[in-house]
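Task: sequence design from structure.
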């Protein structure tokens, strides 16, 4: 019995040490975030000189925030923006990112900065954002801006690769 007791103590000590290590390191991980960003450029069906940038922050607390700043838009038009599945040079950025590929084609399963239609300022500038309650998967790699025609997202007029 005696040798057995001696072996139990180091294990208990190791378990306590592991618990303390975990308690110390998890807050550090939870505070971490992964930032990707890219510059907007005139794209596919777009015209004129569109600029600005997009930024995605995947936070360690399990949320994702996307902010966009776009310049060179037509103040008389409406626009909508989505996170897309492919890079700007690959199939015109493909379709919409969906956290659950079998889920709904709308927020929060998709990420739409502005969460719908938006109008630029008189100077053609738009600043929009969206936050979703999950850590966006690796297929969230570009942000596309569409012109709205007849109330529906239409031509892809700008794109930014998130890298
Ligand atoms: Cu889109």
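Answer:
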């Amino acid at each position: 019995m005696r040798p057995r007791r001696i072996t139990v103590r180091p294990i208990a000590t190791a378990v306590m040490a592991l618990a303390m290590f975990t308690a110390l390191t998890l807050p550090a991980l939870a505070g971490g975030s992964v930032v990707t960003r890219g510059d907007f450029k005139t794209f596919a069906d777009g015209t004129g000189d569109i600029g600005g940038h997009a930024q995605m922050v995947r936070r360690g607390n399990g949320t994702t925030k996307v902010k966009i700043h776009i310049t060179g838009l037509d103040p008389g038009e409406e626009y909508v923006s989505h996170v897309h599945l492919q890079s700007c040079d690959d199939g015109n950025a493909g379709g919409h990112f969906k956290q659950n590929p079998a889920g709904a084609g709308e927020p929060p399963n998709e990420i739409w900065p502005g969460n719908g239609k938006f109008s630029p300022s008189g100077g053609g500038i738009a600043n929009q954002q969206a936050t979703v309650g999950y850590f966006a998967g690796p297929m969230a790699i570009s942000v596309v801006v569409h012109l709205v025609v007849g109330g529906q997202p239409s031509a892809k007029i700008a794109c930014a690769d998130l890298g």
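The chain is about 20% helix and 35% strand.
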